[in-house]
Design brief:
The protein is α+β, with helices and mostly antiparallel strands. The protein folds into 2 domains: 231 residues, no CATH class; 250 residues, no CATH class. Helix content is 43%, strand content 12%.
């Protein structure tokens, strides 16, 4: 059996299991092999002193004795107060928590581990779960009588104020203590029930804590290949039809927008062009024609943005890199390549995809910058390679320093930080330059109309057509289509729950892309009709404004978590 980092939904700061005074294996705990994604997600898997053999049941086996000092008591109480949970692993299966429900029957929870202790609100006493009933489900391999596989793992924590029979006093070191019977476990070979007759184990300075455990084996009809299904289809999770209702609603929104855009392109524009051509009679062909609406800005519509054209190209390149990364990460997760059984695989593959997609980011930024007739192409490429990853990496380093001050297992070791920096410098940045090379090598984009020398004055628009209002209101529609799925993703991120409905995520992701594109086309048309030819930044922020709504929703959702640390905020 292995132990992972302790986690809490109240602090979101994972802690090393052996930071608390728990029993340690002989020779000290050893780190198990981990990938980069596991370190980045705060997983720290180590060996444990629990001895488990296939089909060998154990009853009230004494593990060790701990006599906590002042610091240990303070540490234990703090972690119990903040609701920290143990996360144990057997045969790569995380432990489910088995406990009594309010109605008296036993209930399993398959995510988040099991608590390390509890607080009695009335007496303000802290109690530790020093005994665990380890329930393991096994399945016999077909055709082989002596081959079995682990298909289920749950832990039932119990707090028992253990004591030796005949008032034996143990120093916790001599082997004699392991041979002495416990007064609280008088019957050898009998399972210790959760509703034990003895009182709970209080956490106080100098009070010995005896750690014991039972191992119980149960036959199961679940096959090894489907043992993860129960983790991903937990009974208390929302049924799939809720997702389908949300997606159906989103699809209806997309259809409505598609019809609206089609109406504009096939009806309004065609009518405008037909009316424009109708006035070209034989007598008027050589005369100036009065133009109205969007036709007035035909000589300005492809004018490069006057404000920060290079930053605009950098944002487009970085955005394309992120969009393709997200798409491939969701695709690979949906088809089952990135399973929760492989911890950290999603984080690792996302980083790999992001690096490889640097070639698309460099290509996009260079193509746009060339069509803007920019001259500082080296600076544009360098900003594309450094700006967004640099901001993200800097934030990561700042938070990593804070996590190290909290002695959190979520703090990434220096060697892994060097690996991340090497991936960025020696893979991502060169690929951005390769993409930029191909982008600059291609001919510049040729626009269908010529741009006038002097920009046309933009008339004052009504309050409903003001770009500032339209830009920031546009994000409501895509956000409404993705609201339900974003809620489940937030729940998974912050509440230690498994998220594996990437098929729904893929549908919602495509819906968001289509909705953002269509709402941008629609609002850009209205802006052009209002004779506003500055559409470059307008189109970018119109579809990007959905990010403000996602961020606002995250802040509102965060208030539910009852955060106990200012660092979490």
């Amino acid at each position: 059996m292995k132990v992972n980092s302790m986690t809490s939904i109240h602090t979101q700061i994972p802690k090393d299991y052996y930071r608390l005074p728990f029993c340690q294996p002989e020779g000290g705990p050893k780190m198990m092999s981990e990938n980069l994604g596991e370190f980045l997600t705060g997983n720290k898997i180590q060996t444990s002193p629990y001895t488990i053999n296939m089909l060998r049941e154990v009853y009230c086996d004494l593990l060790c004795q701990i006599v906590p000092d002042v610091d240990s008591v303070k540490n234990l109480k703090m972690h119990i107060k903040y609701g920290y949970h143990n996360n144990w692993i057997i045969d790569n299966l995380p432990s489910a928590a088995l406990g009594l429900s309010d109605k008296g029957y036993k209930l399993k929870h398959y995510a988040g581990g099991f608590p390390i202790g509890l607080v009695d609100i009335a007496s303000k006493n802290y109690f530790i779960f020093n005994h665990v009933n380890i329930h393991i489900d096994y399945h016999q391999v077909e055709g082989l009588d002596d081959k079995y596989r682990v298909v289920g793992f749950s832990v039932e924590p119990v707090s028992i104020q253990h004591g030796f029979a005949n008032n034996f006093q143990w120093d916790g070191k001599s082997p004699e203590g392991h041979r002495k019977p416990l007064a609280t476990c008088p019957n050898t070979g009998v399972h210790v029930p959760s509703e034990h007759a003895f009182g709970p184990q209080i956490v106080e300075e100098g009070t010995p804590i005896l750690f014991t455990y039972d191992v119980l084996w149960n036959p199961s009809s679940v096959e090894w290949a489907s043992r993860w299904d129960v983790y991903l289809t937990e009974d208390n999770m929302v049924p799939a039809k809720v997702h389908w209702y949300s997606i159906t609603n989103s699809i209806l929104v997309v259809l409505f927008l598609s019809l609206l855009v089609a109406n504009l392109l096939l009806r309004s524009l065609r009518n405008d062009i037909a009316a424009y051509n109708a006035v070209l009679t034989d007598e008027e062909k050589d005369e100036d024609i009065d133009e109205t609406g969007w036709k007035l800005v035909h000589a300005d519509v492809f004018r490069p943005p006057t404000q920060y054209p290079m930053i605009y190209c950098v944002f487009l390149g970085s955005g394309l890199q992120l969009a393709i990364t997200a798409f491939f990460s969701i695709i690979f997760s949906a088809v089952g390549f990135l399973s929760p059984a492989r911890r950290g695989s999603l984080m690792t593959m996302t980083l790999v995809f992001y690096m490889l997609c640097g070639i698309f980011g460099g290509y996009m930024s260079s193509r746009m910058y060339k069509c803007f007739r920019g001259r500082h192409w080296q600076m544009c490429t360098l900003l594309t390679a450094l700006f967004f990853p640099g901001v993200s990496f800097s934030l990561f380093l700042v938070f990593n320093i804070f996590l190290s001050f909290y002695h959190s297992s979520g703090s990434v070791p220096f060697l892994d930080i060097l690996i991340l920096a090497s991936m960025w410098c020696f893979v991502s940045i060169p690929l951005v330059f390769v993409g930029s090379y191909f982008g600059y090598k291609k001919d510049a984009i040729v626009f269908p109309t010529k741009t006038s020398t002097i920009a046309r004055v933009i008339p004052e628009s009504s309050i409903f057509l003001k770009p500032e209002i339209m830009m920031y209101c546009a994000g409501m529609l895509p956000f409404a289509g993705a609201y339900v799925e974003i809620f489940f993703i937030m729940t998974s991120l912050w509440m230690d729950q498994y998220y594996y409905i990437f098929g729904f995520t893929l549908l919602v992701y495509v819906i968001i892309l289509v909705t953002c594109a269509e709402i941008t086309v629609l609002l850009c048309y209205y802006q052009l009709c209002a004779e506003n030819h500055r559409w470059w930044w307008f189109s970018f922020i119109t579809s990007g404004s959905v990010g403000f709504y996602v961020f606002g929703f995250a802040c509102l959702w965060f208030r539910q978590l009852e955060s106990s640390k200012i660092f979490m905020t």
